[in-house]
Write a structure and sequence with these properties.
It is built from eight helices and no strands. With about 190 residues, the chain is mostly helical. It has two domains: about 45 residues, no CATH class; about 130 residues, no CATH class. Helix 6 packs across helix 7, helix 6 packs across helix 8 and helix 7 packs across helix 8. The longest helix is centred in the middle third of the chain and has 31 residues. The radius of gyration is 28 Å and the shape is elongated.
Length: about 190
């Protein structure tokens, strides 16, 4: 059945024929979405949709519960990671954003994997600083981990605020990375 395009008096001649045909198809659909769910017709329409897309045919109630909890846990993790990325970007403006993003993404895994604060800090930056051996990063992380345990202690970012990131030495970049990791870990602990 060919549909006639809507009257061109409303749309003028600005629409090509293909778009007019598409518009005619949309305008002449038999089933309209019930914009007012309080209407009686809406109840039947929504019940019919629910029947067609029922999850109970595919999954048991315990499966649905288990999978939904896993989904919500993943969504919460993504939200926390994004919030942590924003916090780090605001706090450490001179540090490259991708560097901060990778630290934010690795923090939760590091805190689950290791007990020691220094080990957690090293785990956060190990993949970002591949030229460094884990033992060398441990040497740099220990003083930072112990110094930052005291309440409200502020560790200087070793020139990161004075010079561009690219001009920092590898040691300075590693220290800044470990400092950022420590702040990220503390933020994760606060949010839990």
């Amino acid at each position: 059945m060919a549909t006639q395009p809507p009257d061109s008096q409303y749309f003028g001649d600005s629409l090509p024929d293909a778009e007019m045909e598409l518009l005619a198809t949309v305008v002449q659909t038999d089933v309209a979405y019930p914009w007012n769910p309080a209407q009686l017709e809406s109840e039947a329409y929504l019940a019919d949709l629910e029947q067609k897309f029922s999850l109970s045919d595919c999954f048991s109630d315990s499966d649905i519960d288990q999978k939904s909890q896993a989904l919500f846990a993943q969504l919460e993790q993504v939200w926390l990671t994004r919030a942590l990325q924003k916090f780090l970007c605001d706090k450490f403006t001179g540090v490259p954003e991708d560097f901060l993003t990778r630290i934010a993404q690795s923090v939760e895994n590091a805190t689950v994997k290791y007990q020691s604060l220094a080990d957690q800090m090293v785990e956060c930056v190990l993949n970002i600083l591949p030229q460094w051996a884990e033992e060398d990063l441990q040497v740099l992380a220990r003083p930072l981990a112990y110094a930052m345990r005291e309440a409200d202690s502020e560790v200087e970012l070793v020139g990161a605020k004075k010079r561009p990131w690219a001009q920092l030495s590898e040691i300075e970049q590693a220290r800044v990375g470990l400092t950022v990791a420590r702040y990220a870990i503390s933020q994760l602990e606060i949010s839990d």
